[in-house]
């Protein structure tokens, strides 16, 4: 399998060279819609959060993503602000996308929820964390709410694990020991390692998606972001980590891996969504409205070690 991907890559380069095509002109492999934090609710505006306007913004984004003929769309959590009671109105608008939608849960999606373990079913997700394989790419969608106060019940293993995380972070003086942040539990961490191992061994491109950012650290990062970063950094084929949660957006590079926090749709009058184009040598984010456009070239192995 690994040799077949390498052969395909070589053939693409040879084909491009014969036609006089530069690497930058090689065809796009996938076009992916990107949406983060619509956070819809039937509420009055609070500061720059315009909850009701998110319905119109979703309609606009769906229309544009259909026009762009995206292959699928990722929604990186916080579809709603006050839990699943408001979900039907935004879900029916997302359902008008012509291609599949893959979702993550955010902390606001858990509001007024009694059973955090099964909440993913209401959002039409295959599991609370999962991966999507498309051609030479593996997209790993993590559940950074798994270990949190808002998604767990008292006296469960997850709540006890969360409390230990909180206590440890407070002793360290970390600012992310906040009630709206969450993390990844040991079982999911082991699953992630297995997914990364499998994709790396198959020489596939890897994109990791989270609700809570991992980096840069600003108090909104996942509770165990440093452990996740160290694991992810061991795999050279990880091309980027995309996250939501921090509505202002953010960007950093951790050991050669771009860490992109998408601007939240709920903030301000202008919309915020985008299209991610996947190439064999880079990914391009074409932002709409407030969402920042970026070109992220894949580093050489020598560059990743720096």
From TrEMBL:
Domain Calcineurin-like phosphoesterase: residue ranges: 30-248
Highest taxon listed in the record's lineage: Bacteria
Segments passing through the bilayer: none
Protein name: Metallophosphoesterase
Gene source species: Sphingobacterium thalpophilum
């Amino acid at each position: 399998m690994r040799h077949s991907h390498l052969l395909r890559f070589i053939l693409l380069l040879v084909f491009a060279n014969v036609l006089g095509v530069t690497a930058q002109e090689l065809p796009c492999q996938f076009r992916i819609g990107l949406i983060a934090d619509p956070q819809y609710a039937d509420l009055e505006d609070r500061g720059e959060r315009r909850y009701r306007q998110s319905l119109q913004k979703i309609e606009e984004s769906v229309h544009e993503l259909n026009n762009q003929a995206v292959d699928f769309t990722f929604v990186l959590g916080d579809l709603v602000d006050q839990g699943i009671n408001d979900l039907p109105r935004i879900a029916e608008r997302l359902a008008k996308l012509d291609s599949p939608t893959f979702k993550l849960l955010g902390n606001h999606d858990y509001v007024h929820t009694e059973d955090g373990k099964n909440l993913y079913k209401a959002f039409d997700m295959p599991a609370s964390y999962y991966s999507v394989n498309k051609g030479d790419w593996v997209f790993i969608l993590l559940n950074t709410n798994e270990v949190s106060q808002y998604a767990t019940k008292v006296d469960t293993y997850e709540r006890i694990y969360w409390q230990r995380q909180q206590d440890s972070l407070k002793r360290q003086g970390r600012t992310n020991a906040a009630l709206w942040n969450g993390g990844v539990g040991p079982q999911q961490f082991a699953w992630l390692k297995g997914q990364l191992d499998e994709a790396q061994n198959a020489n596939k491109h890897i994109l990791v998606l989270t609700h809570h950012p991992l980096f840069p650290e600003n108090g909104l990062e996942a509770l165990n972001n440093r452990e996740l970063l160290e694991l992810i950094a061991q795999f050279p084929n990880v091309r980027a980590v995309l996250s939501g949660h921090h509505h202002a957006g953010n960007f950093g590079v951790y050991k050669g891996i771009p860490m992109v926090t998408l601007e939240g749709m709920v903030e301000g009058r202008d919309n915020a969504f985008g299209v991610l184009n996947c190439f064999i040598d880079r990914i391009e984010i074409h932002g709409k409205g407030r969402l920042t456009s970026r070109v992220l070239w894949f580093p050489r192995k020598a560059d990743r070690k720096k």
